[in-house]
Amino acid sequence: MRTLHTRLHTELHAGLHGRWGIPAVSGLLIAGSAAITGLAGAGVAGDTVMALAAVVAGTPIALHAVRALLARVIGIDLLVAVASIGAVVIGQYWEAAAVTFLFAVGHALEQATLSRTRSALAELVAVAPDVAVVLRDGGQVEVAAAAVAMGETVLVKNGAKVPVDGEVLAGTGAVDQASITGESIPVDKAVGDQVFAGTVSRGGLLQVRATGVGADTTLARIIHRVEEAQDAKARTQRFMDRFSAWYTPAIIVLAVVAGVLTGDVVLALTLLVIGCPGAMVISIPVSIVAGIGRAAKDGILIKGGEYLEKSAKITAVAVDKTGTLTRGRPRLTDVVVLGPDADRAAVLGWAALAEAGSEHPLARPVLDAARSEGLPTDRLPEVTESIPGKGITATSGGHRLLVGNLALLTQFGVADDRGSGQVAHDLAVAGRTPMIVAVDGVVVGVVAVADEVRPDAAQMVGELRRAGVRKVVMLTGDAMPVAVAVGEATGVDEVRAGLLPQDKLDVVRELQAAGYVVAMVGDGVNDAPALAVADLGVAMGAAGSAVALETADIALMADNLLKLPEAIRLARRTVANMHQNIAVALATVSLLLLGVLVGGVTMAAGMLVHEVSVLVVILNAMRLLRSRTQSHTPAAAGAPVAFVRNNARRATEPARR
């Protein structure tokens, strides 16, 4: 019995001190006043209880108004406080109680529904793991997730949350990554794969080496960024804040003037209540919170309201080819022998030796192919020099090695007397990236690599057009023939080939000068200048990149091209929602003010309509939280493409970059 009494007391205390406590007490007092009046007739007792109801509901409002005034802010609370105090002074106890009670109820409903719009953030926090099973001293030890040390080995069993960011050391399994990337299907994991804290094992047993713990995990960074983004103000919101700063004092002046001219104090007080810009103040932030929250649930991290608004205005998208339209994992496809004393092993071996000292992405497929064919890849050249836009030169054992394009041969005075230029051109036309190999001033052959076009690249281009994007441009440092093959496969509007990082920046500026609002999609490294100057920088596959999470305006957590048009569609829905909310708020206030001036709208009725309009605005914003089924109609590949030669010499030659 004592336990039950204690629990009831605790729940009652929580209820009275929660968001619904004050409205509940005020409502009971209003009901009590009505009962007293009904039983005993109008009198001091009923008026006293009604005035007490106004005091209970109005005290927090008055306190908020005072705090706002101390901060030099004239807000909604001040209007309601002045109106309710004035109503009590002139004996309008019912009006005072009704206004403060409705305002308190409206505030509680706002808090309840606003917390719903932040549900995505709450869900992200909820998936944060609490415990981890760590291998220590030859045994399994359960510790707090935050207590795992970097480099420790963590066991992830079927059904368990992954407690850290890490790399799979042993085992296989399927992991549900929806909380991070928005992917609905579990992803198979094996040795060498990356896993993220907060994801859930759906089968198998994984041993994971911790590479990120506590606040350094991808999940923690996402939570931090979503929280910041939902609080960040859009340009429209900043305008509405400035508007409200002038609007509220104007309503006070209007009420005073109306009261002086008519001598009707009730009219003046009613104007104060009716003129509350509550729906206007909340119309923008509630849409932004809901829109950014919906995006986060779908694996799209938008950095704030400003970028959400920009996303809705995008009319051109510039897309880097390698790693975006293509998989970014090129493989060796051809080894063409041109030297009379050379063979396949010799050409590939020389190319691998030169590339062993290179950091370029095309070095990896050459080295991998050489290793798979049993050629040595552990030797390093004494000297390696990268020639941007041309290739690489290396020195090893007294031999000078060149791997690159015709421009590289010309720079070092190597004659193309064995038709390597034509071979390279034919390979490039076939959609491959050729590299001519020369040893000690003599061409020995050509190697070529190819990067597979993503199967959803053409669909992404079509979805962008359906989302309202007028132009899609592919940017690449590759040769024009290679770029043409990818452009035709994906259906982009325009191809710019043979570009250096500075050239990509110039293309973005050119599009902006033509009146386009440009989004640049890239990997954040070679594309950094273009990403910086674009109206919107978009990073793909950001779940595995802390840099992308920090620097991109929009980060697509999954390596999924279709998330880009999805982000633009969501942004446009959100901005349309903001405009709808503003229209509702302005129409409500205008009609109420007209109703007061013409006659017929009372203080209590006006407050009721006002609070209903606030709820309409919030409920309208909450529609953004619903997931929409996206179109999956394949876009037609091979659409007309404009091919622009940004650098005539590089564009007509096989290029490394």
Please, could you describe this protein's structure?
The protein is an alpha/beta fold and 657 residues long. Among the domains are: 109 residues; 88 residues, Calcium-transporting ATPase, cytoplasmic transduction domain A; 141 residues, HAD superfamily/HAD-like (Rossmann fold, 3-Layer(aba) Sandwich), CATH 3.40.50.1000; 120 residues, 3-Layer(aba) Sandwich (Calcium-transporting ATPase, cytoplasmic domain N). 53% of the residues lie in helices and 18% in strands. The protein has an 8-stranded mixed sheet, sandwiched between helices. Strands 1, 2, 3, 4, 5, 6 and 7 form a 7-stranded antiparallel sheet that branches. Strand 18, helix 21 and strand 19 form a beta-alpha-beta unit. The termini are far apart. The N terminus and C terminus are likely disordered. It comes from Pengzhenrongella frigida.
Structural class: alpha/beta
Mean pLDDT metric: 79
CATH architectural category of the domain at 302-327 and 453-567: 3-Layer(aba) Sandwich
Percent helix range: 40-55%
Which band does the percent of strand residues land in? 15-25%
CATH superfamily of the domain at 302-327 and 453-567: HAD superfamily/HAD-like
Q: Strand order across the biggest sheet?
A: 8-20-19-18-9-16-17-21
Biggest sheet architecture: 8 strands, mixed
Per DSSP, the total helix count is 25
Distance between the termini: 79 Å
Poorly predicted ranges:
1-16, 630-639, 645-657
CATH C-level label of the domain at 302-327 and 453-567: Alpha Beta
Shape: elongated
Report the strand count.
21
How big is the Rg?
A: 33 Å
CATH topology of the domain at 302-327 and 453-567: Rossmann fold
Family: Belongs to the cation transport ATPase (P-type) (TC 3.A.3) family. Type IB subfamily.
Transmembrane segments: 20-42, 48-66, 243-261, 267-293, 582-601, 607-625
Protein name: Cation-translocating P-type ATPase
GO molecular function: ATP binding; ATP hydrolysis activity; ATPase-coupled monoatomic cation transmembrane transporter activity; cadmium ion transmembrane transporter activity; metal ion binding
